[in-house]
Structures are given as C-alpha cells and as structure tokens.
Design a protein that fits this description.
mainly alpha; two-stranded antiparallel sheet; globular
Length: 539
Amino acid sequence: MNNNNPAKITKTKMSLFSVVMLALSSIIGSGWLFGSWEAAKISGPAAIISWIIGAIVIGIIAYIYIELGTMFPESGGMSKYAGYTHGPLLGFIASWANWVSLVTLLPIEAVAAVQYMSSWPWSWANWTHGFVSNGTVTTSGLLVVFLFILIFTLLNYWSVNILTKFTSLTSIFKLVVPSVTIIMLLLSGFHPENFTMAAAGGFFPYGSAPIFAATTVSGIIFSYNAFQTVINIGDEIQNPKKNIWRGIVIALIISIAIYVLLQFTFIGAIEPQMLAKVGWNGINFKSPFADLAIMLNINWLVILLYLDAFVSPFGTGVSFVASTSRTLAAMTQSHHMPKFLGKINQKWGTPRIAMIANWIISCLLVSVFKNWAILASVISTSTLIAYATGPVTLAALRKHAPQFKRPVRINAYKIMAPLAFVLASLAIYWAMWPTTMEVIIVIALGLPFYFFYEGKLNWSNTKQKFAGSWWMIAYLCFMAGFSYIGSTPFGGQNWIHYPFDFLVIILMALVFYYWGVHSYQNTAEMTDAQSVNDRVKEH
C-alpha cells in the first residue's frame, strides 16, 4: 500500500541551501523587529554584549545537539532524545517543554506582524490602529492574529515541497531587508555619542546585571533559538551527516552577524536629544525600526520595513508550524499522548491533525498572553528547560552506548556538555521571577496527560521511569525556588546578592548535570534509538 511513499519522500528531501534558508527563515523573524529595542531599554548600549552572550549560549547548546541530530536524523527528533536515555517521563517533560515553546512561537510571530500593522502611518490604514493598545493586542487585533496563524498552518498543510519553496523565497528577502536597514540607518543618522552619553548613563546605564537579564527577557535567546528547526526535520534532509551541522553553523553565523549589527545600528540611530531627555528605558516605539526610518524621513525604507514586518514573521511562523507539528506528533510515540495526533498524511507526508491542534492551542495561548515581550520570555525559558536535557543525554549515550554511530563526534564533550547545561541554567535564571515559576507551572500542566496514559498502561515500570527523572523534577523545583530568593536585578527577594547568585546557579547546575548523567536507565526506548541509528551512514 505504501510502496510509492519512499519515492515521494525522496523527491522532497531538502538540499543544504534549502536547510540554511529554512533555518534563517526561522531565526530571522520578529526578533529582529523588536529585539534591539527591547534589549536597549533594559541595558542601553551594553545590549550589544547581550546579543554576543546569547549567541555563545545558543551556539554551545547547538554544538551539543549537532552530535545528537546526526546520530538520530528523524522527524521531531528533539522530542525523543531524553526518553532514549532516561525513560518516557523525562522524555515527556523535555518534549512538552519544547512543544510549549514552539506552539507559543506561532502567536508571537503573528503578534509582531499585527503590531507593525497597528502603526501604519497612512490615512487609509486608520482601521488598523486599534489592533494594539499599550503593547497589548486588542480583541480586533486577536482576530487578525488568529487568521495569520491559520495561514502559517495552511502553507505547511500540503507538503514539505511547498514549505521548501516558500521558506527559500522569504529567507532571501529576510536577509536583504535587515541588511538594507543597517546600511541606510548608518548612513542617514548615526550618532556615535549615544554609546557613551553621560546624560543617558554611559555604556552601562543600569550596571552589568541587566546585560544578562536582556539576554532572555528581551527575546535574544528566542531570536537565536530556531536552530532546532533543522534538528526536527532530520529525516527530510539530503545527506544528514553533513547537512545538519553545516546548515546549523552557517545559519547561526549569518544570524549572529545580522543581530549584532542591528543592535549597534539601533543604538546609534536614536536621536541624542530624545535619549538625553527620556533615557534608554524611556524609549517607546510601536514599530522600532520603522519609527526610526520615519524620524529620518526615509519613506521608501518605511514601506520596505512594513512589508518585511509581514514577511519575517510569516517566514518564521511557517517554518515553525512544521517543527511544532512534528514535535507534537513525535510525542505520541511514547504512548502518553493521543495516537491520532501522530498520524502522518500518507499523500503529503505531513502530520495534519497535529497542525490543526497546534493552531487551536496557539489561538488560546495568544488570547491569554497578548504581549510580544511576555511571549518571548515564555518561549525562551521553556526552550532552555527542554535544551537542558540534551547535554545530559549526550554524556549518557557516550558512556552507555559507545557502539552507536556518530557521524559528527563533538570534541571535548566532558567539558562542553556540562558547560552547555550551566549556560542553559543561567539563562533560565535570567528570565527573572515570576516568569521562571510561571513557565515551570505551564510545563507541570502537561503531567496529567502523562499520568492518565501511564494509568492506561497499568503503571508498568513506574519506579524505573521516575528513577530517570527525579533529577529533572528536583532541578525545576530548585530553579523556581532560587529565582524567588535570588538577587533583585532578576526579580528575586535579594537573599543572595548579585553576582553571588550566579555562583550558586553554576555549582548547583553541575550537581544536577552529573546527577542526570548517572540517572541513565536501560529503557525500551533505546531499542527505537538503535533502529534509528542503524539507518545512519557514517561515510
């Protein structure tokens, strides 16, 4: 019955160029439209350092996942790795956290497009001005957001082939517009004195702590996060051994250069008189780069930016519908989610039911969280919690499954894996109280699904499943509790002052990391891991 399937799937395998374009289309989304402004409000000119720190954090985490992604090139891969080594409970927690971040990303991109629409300066566009009020989407704006998320979904509904063509086209446009914006703002109104202006507090107007807070709170981690799109479509890529890591590395290098230059340009483009009057935290824009272009009278750039305010979020939204649906579909394989969500349409090769479910849930989420910055914090924190399982999984596999094929074997994993875990833990803390607690509660809301299906399985091997997961449960409790008692710059009660709070996080993260590595369980899921790994070609 399925004899024709492999041929169809082979035809739609993605080339390296398509992989890079897909990754860039995911990475360069609403983050470039709002991230520079949000970061500058929090840490002033030092926001440039925030983007570099964010790049280091995500770069090292991505480095870990390159080995895992090439070992297990499969659809929805990031939802499965933790379950291979530590059992279905940890696998569920990790995949649920990852899915929460992905399904939240769909509305944030739609919100970004609607917020730029709401500031259209033309008289004929007055009907859009009520879409956003004080940074929050209104009821009329929500209807447009729902429509945009539906369009994201429909563009993925009919196959990988349509996705590939769409993202390759939008990615080129999304590279050109930020580049043109950087050049024009630098040429038309760059003020180097903004970087050291005493009236605005100098280069570090609010001290060093906000540099780290901005990394998570202003959407920097969120902006870089999208490398996982490549991991989650591993079995749809030509020559995954080489093209997974090449696609991730090339896309990250390009996006880091663009984001750092955008922040540099944004800081220098602010009018010094405005800056001296209100300070960095007083800058209030609806559509940051478009507002700057209006102030500088570059009308054609204004039009281009408003156009890109559709293209960038749409490109990212469309890319992540693919990743989000595959993540939800993959969760059904642990038998702790309804099986119908994992059904793949045989004709088009897409998990259509999962896509529809994600659209509904995205609409519900944006009805609760109607602000871009809040959505960015939720995404960053839940993503980092999911990512934290990767270094533990990699170290456990090195120790307990040395026979597995590793097309890409990362160097110095005994240093890089714990470092990645520590950096992820710090970035979770930087999200600030109460965001850390709120996200952990949202992750805990998934557990009733797990326990319902565990009951249907007659609680088989429950003790073993918990044995592989106690370290993560304790870790999440610690992160939530420590966020509350931590230093004032990160929303805590200041029981432990900055920067000593960082030292506590680092030390405790190492404890949880090694506890996690030694919690390895010889799971039934390892049989699935072996079968996926057996298909890998090392040469």
